[in-house]
Amino acid sequence: MAEADPVPSISDASIPEPGRYFNRELSWLNFNQRVLEEASNPAHPLLERLRFLSISGNNLDEFFMVRVAGLKEQQLQGVELRSVDGLTPAQQLEAIGARADALMAEQQSVWHDLWAALRSAGINVIGTEQVDGKAEAWLREHFLEQVFPIITPQALDPAHPFPFIPNKGLGLFFDLVRESDKQVVQELVILPATLPRFIRMPGRTARYIAMESLVRRFTDLLFPGFIVRESGLFRILRDSDIEIEEEAEDLVRYYRSAIKQRRRGRIIRLEMERGVAEPVENMLQTLMQGHEAMSVDIDGFVGITDLAELVEEDRPDLKFTAYVPRFPERIREYGGDCFAAIKAKDIIVHHPYESFDVVIAFLKQAAADPDVVAIKQTLYRAGKQSAIIRALIDAGRCRQVGHGDRRAQGALRRGAEPAVGQPARAGRRAGGLRLHRVEDARQDIHGRPSRRHRLPHLLPLRHRQLSSGHSPHLHGSQLLHGRSTRRARCSRGVQLHHGLCRTQVDGTAHLVAAQSAAEAD
Question: Name one GO molecular function term (predicted).
């Protein structure tokens, strides 16, 4: 009998073969290339194509703020660890820079085509060109009343400290000459993030002007007695990556501190309008301490992601047909009582065909119910005015305890700040949003309640199948399961997780298999 081939050891199997792997970062840029291609698809309505273009810009921003920032940190620390495709951090950054620059050049080409198409469709984006007298008067009045009071030109000289520019901040550099004595003065105007990037001019015809074009149009009001020799727009991206501290005593407090610190993160990307003199660009990099930043000259619109504001124009003929998701009828039959509807029969909710409002209603009811002892939910991303976060805050005020897992870290890393009044430390019974690691939340994979809290713990789907025979892989759906499983205490516990949710109603435990609740921004 022939001897069997030796089984490769783990150490042998872990040695990467560079030729068999794609680079993760370059592969992601190829994905964003496909997003950009949707902006050139003539089958899509015009404003939807513009939306795809802005999405590709926003994707690229986040890519630099997190992934490239991580590689840059490795390069600065002298880390020479190679990726599975055999590239060092420095080699990856060089390849990323070349690929990203090509991608941004294509974005500008697509924007040029869309700008002409929008103009033909009756949506004009103007610059500093001449407009009729009535429009010019309105622009001047708007600038004086809405913009001029909140912008402050700041001199760039040794006597004045360089102002702080936030992440994704836009700045206008002006090279001026004083008319009285011909002295050269350099000024910086930071465009306030509180104002929209585009201003819609009054009238039936849609006409927009970008904020930087408006400021440039009225430099005589901003710099009286000066002649503008040169101006240039630039934009910066900062390191927004947060290092996960697994052993943090209080994750909420840790992330609150980390989010404050990342607002002043290292400058990763400097986007400069083409035509700015190289000495000016070098001076700005020096003043901003951005010597290590990856810079790019843009021949066109700086900040592609802001084009999303134009999509809000009320032109249904240039957008996809609006779809209104339905609300589950059976919950309406029970007068909106989610618990009663679940108790009567299983409910499966398909997103986006059925409204996410039912999940929010479920949470709100749980937050207001005095019998609820716990709310457990996995949040991937939360909006700034999140109804789910609001419900969790209300639950915390009612001294109920919320639990999360590592995916809460992902939501916080994307900028969702903790918004609870008094977050509890890990292991305490106090109300508020309490974050546990996955290992803490899954102490008992058989579903036995914790001895300390007497609350049902999370049961991952990979450990248990639904007794009703439903598949545990609920892509794009949520199952509200009412099958009785075992007797429990006469209290009501609610869990939302990528797994099973057990609700205890009238002494009977019921299961809810829920997809990770990913609320749209």
Answer: kinase activity
Query: What SS3 string covers 270-290?
Result: EEEECCCCHHHHHHHHHHCCC
The pTM is what?
0.71
DSSP one-letter string for 72-89: HHHHHTT--PPPTTS--H
* DSSP three-state, residue 355: coil
Give the 3-state secondary structure of residue 322.
Answer: coil
From CA 2, how far away is CA 169, in angstroms rounded?
A: 69
Ordered DSSP codes for 226-280: EEEEEEEEEEEEE-------TT-S-HHHHHHHHHHHHTTPPEEEEEEETT--HHH
Name the one residue in this structure whose structure tokens are 């009001």.
221
Residue of 477, 180, 164 whose CA lies nearest to 328: 477
SS3 call for 107: helix
> How far is it, in rounded angstroms, from Cα 375 to Cα 493?
7
What mean pLDDT do residues 112-129 have?
94
Closest CA to 251 of 438, 435, 441: 435
Residues 86, 16: Cα–Cα separation, whole Å: 8
Helix-helix angle 46-62:89-120, to 10 degrees? 160
Under 8 Å between Cβ of 295 and 267 = no
Torsion sign over Cα 79, 80, 82, 87: positive
Whether residue 436 contacts residue 423, with contact meaning beta carbons closer than 8 Å, is answered with no
Which one, of 200, 233, 222, 235, lies nearest residue 147 by Cα?
222
Q: Which residues contact 9 (CB under 8 A, 6 or more apart)?
A: none
